[in-house]
Design goal:
It is built from four helices and no strands. By secondary structure, the protein is mainly α. Helix 2 packs antiparallel against helix 3 and helix 3 runs antiparallel to helix 4. It is elongated, with a radius of gyration of 15 Å.
Length: about 120
């Protein structure tokens, strides 16, 4: 059986989870407990919930965790846009990260639909 780390949505969200805190270190001190903490937590939550969903036993638990991963990806997109708007984050990097999260969201939707089809087939 493949592992969660074989999923492309996990791989891509994991890479972003590593990149974002490196960038966040450059934020001004007053953002430490505002956007820095929030973007680090939400970006980390995406691969956490993808792996949790992948390993869950029940179909509904799988789907629930993937819903959370999708919401956390969208939250991270919002933080990216806010940091770009505040001129802390370069527009080009922000747009690349936003697009990667958009792709992760689409991939998560596909994964959820696959799980639903399997669930419905097994009924």
């Amino acid at each position: 059986m493949p592992a969660f780390k074989d999923l492309w949505i996990w791989k891509e969200s994991y890479e972003l989870m590593l990149e974002i805190p490196e960038f966040a270190k450059s934020l001004p001190k007053e953002e430490k407990y505002r956007k820095r903490d929030q973007i680090e937590r939400s970006s980390s939550s995406v691969p956490d919930n993808v792996s949790e969903g992948y390993m869950a036993y029940y179909y509904q638990d799988k789907i629930k965790s993937l819903y959370v991963a999708r919401k956390e990806a969208a939250e991270t997109q919002n933080h990216i846009e806010a940091l770009k708007g505040k001129k802390y984050l370069d527009t080009e990097i922000a747009d690349i990260w936003f697009s990667k999260y958009q792709r992760i969201i689409a991939g998560t939707n596909s994964f959820i639909n696959d799980i639903r089809r399997k669930r419905d087939h097994d009924k």
